[in-house]
Write a structure and sequence with these properties.
Elements: H1 2-5, H2 11-22, H3 27-43, H4 50-63, H5 68-84, H6 90-103, H7 110-123, H8 126-139, H9 146-168, H10 190-203, H11 214-233, H12 239-247, H13 252-262, H14 276-288, H15 292-305, H16 310-323, H17 330-338, H18 344-369, H19 376-394, H20 396-407, H21 412-420, H22 425-438, H23 449-462, H24 467-478, H25 485-503, H26 505-515, H27 522-531, H28 547-558, H29 564-579, H30 585-598, H31 602-615, H32 620-636, H33 638-641, H34 645-659, H35 668-681, H36 688-700, H37 706-724, H38 730-739, H39 743-759, H40 763-774, H41 783-796, H42 799-815, H43 820-824, E1 832-833, H44 835-839, H45 843-847, E2 853-854
Parallel strand pairs: 1-2
Helix pairs in contact: 3-4, 5-6, 6-7, 6-8, 7-8, 7-9, 8-9, 9-11, 10-18, 11-12, 11-13, 12-13, 12-14, 13-14, 14-15, 16-18, 17-18, 18-19, 20-21, 21-22, 22-23, 23-24, 23-25, 24-25, 25-26, 26-28, 28-29, 30-31, 31-32, 32-34, 34-35, 35-36, 36-37, 38-39, 39-40, 40-41, 41-42
Length: about 850
């Protein structure tokens, strides 16, 4: 009675109480009673507080325990009150849901279950979340709604609970590595991550992960249990995501159990969908549970499955060693691993990690030494890590060079780069020896490069005057099986050159004579080598076929005195080169020059030129160069050779007949050379024959060499003018005007011709030429001609002729719309009719071609 007196405030309350005593099952009375108190609360909350209404609702529901509507009414009102009071009654609201579900066991309660779960997750009340989840899964009959129920709980775990677990648990960075699928935008540098690990290893508790408080354990276990429960009914495509979420609870026994059951079980033998992140999580879990055998076996399997991640897995193991304070010899392990990396990407990953590792140790020890007195062991560690960091920085280029050589031990470029990194000749010599011992000569695919490397090695000793050692190296090098001739000739060439400059030419000549000795089966040997007959012949079988060595041999022979023996050896060497089909135009020219200059036998040199022309008959360019040298030598040696001018003329004619039939090259120099010869025979004065040579060149050169043709015509005109006078130039002008293109260039010669006729006072011929030239190009582009014509008419004409000129110009301006420059690029222009040809035609014949211009004067 005392209790009820705390809530009854007036007569109206007493009246309601009497009414309820008469009929306690009257829901109407209860509702009126409650509504009255609610109204009083809204008017004066101090007089009628919320606790009074709650007390009354509780009495009400004691009478109607299984009435869901009354429970909903109470709960709905409490939710509203809780919202107004900013969550003051959250716990009570959750308790109401729980009590409601206890009292209405057999009634439809899906809505209240889901509402209960929603409020529990919003309140982060783990006990009520579990109760509301159980109730919802039990009472919601529609199984399709269970996914939404679990989704609510999973969202709570992801958004609210797991972040708490992560904050209280292990740093995720220690169980992952930078990988495209795991990129979460973390801004911590690798150095900072390592510093955290090193600090915990050196100055933190070795069992930090075992010292978590009970609250943390409770949160982790609660979340892990719930996730384990969900995994049983989880869709297969979501299992990986849930396991990843589970890993963030750091409940390692349960993580290990769930991974084994739901990911690595026999029924899930197809593990192609397992990401490397999950493998790393499971590895860490095994490590935390000290299941080292399982750890080792799983790591082996991961390396086989992800061979490209070998370095990252190695770093993962190093981080594990740091976490367990197994720091001894880690630096050496890193260096040894660097020395066996297979790709530049792996090397740079591991190298950068190694640098960060050393810096992390140095930074942490230095920072702590400012605060506390560090042990002597740590001081020694500091010294060691500083030294190790220096070695890493200094040896980076060497290690990269070694990496490249691991990838391709037969790369001459990589070996040479490594040799350049050595600081002194002794180290370079040792590296040369190492390189040449490891290189497989048959797998080197750059001709001459291996021979060059051997030569550099031997030269290193030769430059230090260790001739005996250098010769041994050269001799060893000549026995290496080379697939390319360039390698062997490189070695012999340098060896002979060294012998020449140090001990004289005889030593070099003897060596070259020996290695260039031609076997009887030389043709067969060369064929086998060129066609790579199996087994592939080595370069030693065709060393005699090296033009480079033959050229050196010839140079040395020709530098010796002209004794009978030396001359014979030199000629024999040239003939051998020809027999081996190594001869080039330059070798032939040198051979010819040897006869003419050294032996003073020009006629023998001419025979060499004839052989040369036969040997290179297929290439007109080479034949042209040979002929130019041949003709120059003949004219130069004429005084000593005794060759007659008719023979020389015959040579020029043979040259022209061979070259002019092909229009591939411009042979104007032959005609100019021939002309010069003829003029020289006439005391450097032109003759009809010399002029005809120029005209022949102008006629027979291909039109694509028009500049050369014009040059020959111009020379012909100049020399004819000087020798025979202007009248003799007329046929040349008439000929060239018909052939010269483009029309703009033709007009230039029309004006030259017209100027000549003007000087001869042949007015009609001048006008005829100008009329012809005017029709070649539109007046707007032919200013020079019209200026000349206008001046001519002013000086020599009359009003009638001047008027005719203007009429023609106006007519052509109207008619010549077509770009005559384009027309002039064609094979020919309008027909030019000379006076001579007109004299042989009748009027009817001339009239049939309106484009012809009559110059009959």
């Amino acid at each position: 009675m005392e209790m009820i007196n705390n809530y009854i405030l007036d007569d109206e309350d007493i009246a309601f109480e009497y009414e309820l005593q008469k009929d306690p099952t009257s829901s109407l009375s209860w509702n009126r009673y409650i509504e009255t108190w609610k109204e009083q609360n809204s008017k004066d909350s101090k007089r009628r507080p919320i606790t009074h209404i709650i007390w009354l609702y509780n009495r009400f529901l004691e009478q109607f325990k299984d009435d869901l509507n009354f429970w909903n009414e109470f709960i709905t009102w409490m939710i509203q009150i809780n919202t107004v009071t900013q969550g003051k009654y959250t716990e009570f609201v959750l308790h109401l849901h729980e009590k409601c579900l206890e009292n209405i066991r057999n009634r439809d309660s899906e809505k209240i279950c889901i509402q209960y779960l929603k409020i529990a997750t919003e309140a982060c009340n783990l006990a009520h979340i579990r109760k509301s989840l159980d109730a919802s899964l039990k009472r919601v009959k529609n199984k399709s709604k269970h996914a939404d129920i679990w989704g609510n709980v999973l969202n709570f775990l992801k958004e609210k609970l797991i972040p708490v677990c992560s904050a209280l648990g292990e740093d995720e960075e220690s169980i992952s590595f930078n990988h495209p699928e795991d990129n979460d935008g973390d801004e911590k540098s690798e150095l900072e991550k390592l510093e955290i690990l090193v600090y915990k290893s050196l100055f933190g508790s070795k069992n930090d992960h075992e010292n978590d408080n009970n609250d943390t354990d409770m949160v982790n276990i609660w979340a892990s249990q719930l996730l384990e429960r969900y995994l049983i009914i989880c869709p297969p495509d979501k299992i990986n995501d849930i396991l990843l979420l589970l890993s963030k609870t750091y409940d390692y026994p349960r993580i290990q159990s769930c991974f084994k059951k739901f990911l690595f079980s026999e029924r899930n033998s197809n593990d192609h969908g397992i990401t490397i992140s999950l493998y790393l999580i499971y590895l860490n879990c095994l490590d935390r549970l000290s299941l080292f055998h399982e750890y080792k076996e799983l790591m082996k399997g991961i390396k086989e499955k992800y061979p490209k991640e070998e370095i990252n897995l190695f770093i993962f193991n190093i981080n594990r060693s740091i976490k367990r304070s197994n720091n001894a010899e880690l630096s050496d392990k890193l260096v040894k691993e660097l020395e066996i990396t297979k790709t530049l990407k792996d090397f740079m990953t591991l190298y950068n990690y190694s640098i960060d590792f050393e810096q992390a140790y140095i930074n942490i020890i230095l920072q702590e030494s400012k605060i506390i007195e560090v042990s002597q062991n740590l001081k020694e560690d500091l010294t060691y890590h500083i030294s190790q960091l220096g070695r890493l920085l200094d040896s980076k280029d060497i290690m990269i060079s070694d990496l490249r050589l691991r990838q391709n031990p037969n790369s001459i470029i990589y070996w040479r780069d490594k040799i350049k990194l050595k600081n002194n000749k002794k180290e370079r010599a040792e590296e040369y020896g190492t390189a040449l011992a490891q290189i497989n000569s048959l797998k080197v695919n750059q001709p001459g490069e291996l021979g060059k490397l051997w030569s550099e090695y031997a030269q290193l000793y030769w430059d230090q005057n260790y001739y005996s050692a250098a010769r041994k190296l050269y001799e060893t090098a000549t026995k290496v099986p080379y697939p390319f001739l360039e390698d062997l000739e490189m070695i012999y060439f340098q060896w002979a050159d060294n012998e020449l400059h140090t001990f004289g030419k005889d030593k070099a000549l003897n060596m070259l004579a020996l290695c260039l000795k031609v076997p009887e089966s030389f043709e067969s040997d060369i064929t086998k080598f060129k066609t790579k007959v199996k087994p592939t012949p080595l370069a030693q079988t065709v060393l005699f076929n090296s033009l480079k060595l033959w050229n050196l041999y010839l140079d040395l022979l020709e530098s010796k005195p002209l004794t009978e023996t030396n001359i014979k050896e030199t000629i024999n060497a040239y003939e051998t080169i020809i027999r081996l089909k190594l001869v080039t135009p330059l070798v032939f020219v040198n051979y010819a020059d040897y006869f003419s200059t050294n032996l003073h036998k020009p006629m023998e040199s001419y025979k060499i030129y004839e052989r040369m022309l036969d040997s290179f008959s297929q290439s007109v360019e080479i034949k042209y160069e040979i002929w130019m040298n041949y003709l120059s030598d003949v004219i130069r040696d004429r005084a000593t050779s005794g060759i007659g001018k008719e023979s020389i003329r015959e040579l020029f004619e043979n040259c022209i007949s061979q070259l002019k039939v092909q229009d591939e090259i411009d042979i104007i120099q032959v005609y100019l050379h021939f002309n010069s010869f003829e003029e020289a025979e006439n005391q450097d004065k032109p003759t009809r024959q010399s002029i005809n040579i120029l005209l022949e060149g102008a006629r027979f050169l291909a039109d694509k060499f028009m500049n050369s043709k014009i040059k020959l015509w111009q020379l012909s005109l100049d020399k004819t003018m000087n020798l025979l006078g202007p009248e003799a130039c007329r046929p040349i002008f008439e000929e060239c005007i018909q052939k010269i293109t483009p029309d703009s260039k033709c007009v230039e010669y029309v004006l030259k011709y017209a100027s000549l006729e003007k000087d001869l006072k042949e007015w009609r011929r001048v006008r005829g030429l100008l009329q012809y030239g005017a029709r070649l190009i539109a007046p707007i582009n032919n200013a020079a001609l019209w200026t000349f014509w206008e001046n001519f008419e002013v000086e020599t004409g009359d009003e009638v002729e001047y008027k005719k000129m203007l009429i023609l110009k106006k007519q052509l301006e109207d008619e010549m719309i077509v770009n005559t420059e384009e027309i002039s690029q064609q094979d020919s222009h309008i027909q030019f009719v000379s006076s001579a040809s007109n004299n042989n035609k009748n009027a009817a014949d001339i009239a049939t071609n309106p484009n012809e211009i009559d110059l009959d004067i």
